[in-house]
Amino acid sequence: MMKTATEGKEDFQCLVVLSFDEMKIKTTYEYDTKHDQIIGPYSQMQMLLARGLFNNWKQPLFVDFDRRMTNAILFSVISKLHQIGYKVVAVVSDMSGSNHTLWKTLQINENKSWCMHPISSENIYFLADVPHLLKLICNWLLDTGFVLSDNSIISKTPLLELLKINAGEYEICCKLTETHILCKKSQRQNVSLASQLFSETTAVALERYKPGSDPKLCCDLAHFIKEVNNWFHIFNSYTPEIFGFPCKSAYGKYITTQDAAIDKFCKTVKNMRCIGKKSLQVFQKGVLISSTSLKSLLHYVKEKYNRSYILTSFKSRRSRKFIFAFKEQRRTR
């Protein structure tokens, strides 16, 4: 089916991004009526998904249980896609322990954000799942805070002070609630909470009202939030162009402004440290690797396929709805 779909397509329409995700599932036995067999019990479900870089299509290619993603599985899928006319140019995953191990095996790091295609020997660029990175940045800020390159500290303290003002007669930051700052357990996995905390609205409120006793801390945190917000929008674009909002437009549409925002945030992330830590944490490495990969990927598609921009929302794994659909399909067979 996929091979037939390549007929009549231009080369750039066959460029593929692979994303994979592991999900905890209910540990129980299930009966497969079609094959008359008992399945399970399993605790984790792994799914690998292919999607078009410039075409709006998605196709699950690999599903297994209690099995980590390996370079052997990954290269096998890449090779089979190549044989039917699809070229994998990027791979997306979160920065969980097993995935980070795979990245290390392939020698993916801040200085080398790619591995070699097993057949064509061209670069395949690795990117971290940006919503997952955003949650990690948020959790580290709320849990420890950061020490910046000039030894100044940013923490959640101004946000707590902002809540006190919010609780008064006037609500100055409608997006910010106690849940955003004191979130626990599953709430810490909520991307919406993290994106609302790292919003322009929050940053402007901090700059304007400077809650608490330390105005500099408020301004430093506001600047950091703006950097996170701009970087996140660049890596999560759905529309080719949004006039007046270059960071929300497709990457490449406002390349000078977008690269400046990426470089600024990368400089901050590279030079800051989580309080109590001496080295870069996984989320910091993810930001740096993804930034390098996105720039390299755009340069590649410009040079080889004459594409001037990339809609970066492809980077989000967003494969969980396919996992749920797959599980439901098995139940109804």
> Helical residue percent?
40-55%
Strand content is 15-25%
**Count of discrete alpha- or pi-helical segments spanning 4 or more residues:** 12
Average pLDDT figure: 91
Report the major sheet. Answer: 6 strands, mixed
User: Biggest sheet, strands in spatial order?
Assistant: 5-4-1-6-8-7
Order of helices and strands: HEEEEEHEHEEHEEHHHHHHEHH
How many domains is the backbone divided into?
Answer: 2
- By DSSP, the count of extended strands is 11
| Structural class designation | alpha+beta
State the end-to-end CA separation.
22 Å
Q: Can you walk me through this structure?
A:
- 43% of the residues lie in helices and 17% in strands.
- The chain has helices at 2-5, 71-83, 97-105, 130-143, 157-166, 178-181, 191-197, 200-209, 215-234, 255-271, 282-305, 320-331, and strands spanning 15-24, 30-32, 37-39, 44-52, 58-65, 87-93, 114-116, 123-128, 146-147, 153-154, 273-274.
- Strand 7 (114-116) and strand 8 form a beta hairpin.
- The protein is globular.
- Residues 2-106 form the Transposable element P transposase-like RNase H domain.
- It comes from Stegodyphus mimosarum.
